[in-house]
Specification:
Strand content: 25-35%
CATH architecture: 3-Layer(aba) Sandwich
Largest sheet: 5 strands, mixed
Structural class: alpha+beta
Strand order of the largest sheet: 3-4-1-2-5
Number of domains: 1
Shape: globular
Mean pLDDT: 95
CATH topology: Bit1
Order of helices and strands: EHHEHEEHE
Length: 122
């Protein structure tokens, strides 16, 4: 399969400073992916279908802290991309309301890459 920068993608941006366990991180990313997917099925049906039919690409990236996550979220929202910020319920590792993960997409890969290209994989 060739690399196509026009195909839709989804990015999950997680806070590294929270030092979440692997299981907790996985669940927080799942919350973000599910919420973004639900928005896409309602508001961006054609984009969602293209994303799903091309393998539903997702990548998990890291930011150092809440401020960095908020900056990325603002840039994604300004670009009219689907976004969802996960706030934890506080039942396990972190206090209630802690922002853990930002989901972006599905959206055009080129548009998302322009915002997150400097971030490292989690």
């Amino acid at each position: 399969m060739s690399l196509n920068h026009n195909e839709p993608t989804m990015v999950l941006v997680a806070r590294k400073d929270l030092k979440l366990s692997a299981g907790k991180l996985a669940v927080q990313c799942a919350h973000a992916a599910t919420s973004c997917t639900l928005v896409a099925t309602r508001n961006e049906k054609r984009l969602f279908e293209r994303w799903k039919n091309n393998g539903a690409r997702k990548i998990c990236l890291q930011v150092d802290n809440l401020q960095s996550l908020q900056v990325i979220a603002g840039q994604a929202q300004s670009a009219n991309l689907i976004t969802h910020i996960v706030k934890d319920a506080g039942h396990t590792e972190i206090p209630p309301g802690t922002v853990t993960v930002l989901g972006i997409g599905p959206g055009p890969r080129r548009s998302i890459d322009a915002i997150v290209r400097e971030l490292k994989p989690y």
